[in-house]
């Protein structure tokens, strides 16, 4: 039986809700659809933000033959079959969900077909493609970033489903789904099937019966990694190791976990123990070389170490503050004494004048010179 989320999937951009920066008037995907522009791209965004729907709308608008594969289960033979199948003169679009799950050899196999135009590739991923997609393939694709759906956008999607509910119930569902339209629709479908009425209590009961498992594309994925990081931050190694084991047992990509540990080493441990970054990087490298199941031991080693490290977020917080100033003030003029006098005219204008290597005077732009 076709899931409700699939049944009510928008067929055109006019029906699509959200991602206005991509599908709004004069935005890139809107222009591509209108002009029937055939090109490969990757959709990077959180679960339930519209990646599959946009791929289908694009292929339909171009009257293309679309072949849908999931990188979790597909291999070279599946790609080969899609490429060799007769598309009766139509453009051939290969939609590869979770493209970050393809290993290097599989991506290498895919590359020449994307290069020579035998297929137009649309990849979808919840992970930063620059981490997992090989450079030659990435360079041949535009990357479009999708955002989590806003509360207002979620309300519109829930209204489209057509189930009656009061405002309290709708607000609870929006908060629980956290921008994931697919999860919201699925829970509504399950609740209606089980209880015939949509209330907060019925939603909670349906959620417990249906989603008490680790879903790598759903809310539990983010809840677990959040608990894992917060446990390390608090130095609670017992809890951190438990959440690590829970993710590994559920089939989480160990490189995903190791990447978060590398980030954590700079964000949370920081200057308190700079060697933590080297340890975390070594753990990541070990995970790449060893693989599961043994690399779980390397991860546990790194987790126990990071938990025991003293914590200092000052470098991270200072960087965030500096970034806020950049966003607020734009490109403030660089002080003249810090500019290189590359030409005679620049020297005459005061470039590099009175520059001192170890000066205690602020090197910040004039507007920020007293900022700490």
UniProtKB/TrEMBL annotation:
The keyword Nucleotide-binding applies. The keyword Lyase does not apply. It comes from the Bacteria. SUPFAM superfamilies: P-loop containing nucleoside triphosphate hydrolases, post-AAA+ oligomerization domain-like. Keywords: ATP-binding, DNA replication, Nucleotide-binding. GO terms for biological process: DNA synthesis involved in DNA repair; DNA-templated DNA replication. One of its GO terms (molecular function) is single-stranded DNA helicase activity. This is AAA ATPase central domain protein.
């Amino acid at each position: 039986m076709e899931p409700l989320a699939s049944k009510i999937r928008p067929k055109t951009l006019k029906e699509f809700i959200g991602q206005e920066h991509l599908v709004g008037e004069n935005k890139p995907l809107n222009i591509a659809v209108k002009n029937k522009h055939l090109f490969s791209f990757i959709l990077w965004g959180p679960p339930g933000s519209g990646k599959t729907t946009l791929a289908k709308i694009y292929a339909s608008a171009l009257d293309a033959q679309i072949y849908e594969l999931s990188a979790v289960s597909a291999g070279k033979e599946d790609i080969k079959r899609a490429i060799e199948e007769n598309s009766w003169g139509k453009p051939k679009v290969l939609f590869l969900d979770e493209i970050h799950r393809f290993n290097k050899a599989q991506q290498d196999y895919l590359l020449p077909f994307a290069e020579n135009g035998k297929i137009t590739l649309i990849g979808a991923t919840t992970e930063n493609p620059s981490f997992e997609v090989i450079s030659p393939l990435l360079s041949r694709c535009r990357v479009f970033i999708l955002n989590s759906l806003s509360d207002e956008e979620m309300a519109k999607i829930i209204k489209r489903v057509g189930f009656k509910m009061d405002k309290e119930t709708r607000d609870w569902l929006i908060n629980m789904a956290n921008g994931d339209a697919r999860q919201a629709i699925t829970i509504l479908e399950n609740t209606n099937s089980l209880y015939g009425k949509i209330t907060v209590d019925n939603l909670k009961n349906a959620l417990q019966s249906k989603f008490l498992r680790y879903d790598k594309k759903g809310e539990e994925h983010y809840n677990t990694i959040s608990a894992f990081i917060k446990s390390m931050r608090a130095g609670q190694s017992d809890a951190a190791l438990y959440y690590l084991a829970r993710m590994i047992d559920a089939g989480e990509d160990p490189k995903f976990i190791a990447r978060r540990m590398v980030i954590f080493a700079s964000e949370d441990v920081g200057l308190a123990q700079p060697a933590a970054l080297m340890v975390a990087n070594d753990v990541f490298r070990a995970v790449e070389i060893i693989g599961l199941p043994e690399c779980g031991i390397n991860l546990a080693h790194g987790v126990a170490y990071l938990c025991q490290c003293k914590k200092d977020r000052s470098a991270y917080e200072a960087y965030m503050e500096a970034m806020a100033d950049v966003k607020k003030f734009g490109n403030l003029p660089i002080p003249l004494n810090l500019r290189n006098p590359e030409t005679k005219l620049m020297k005459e204008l005061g470039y590099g004048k009175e520059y001192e290597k170890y000066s205690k005077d602020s090197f910040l732009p004039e507007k920020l010179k007293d900022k700490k």
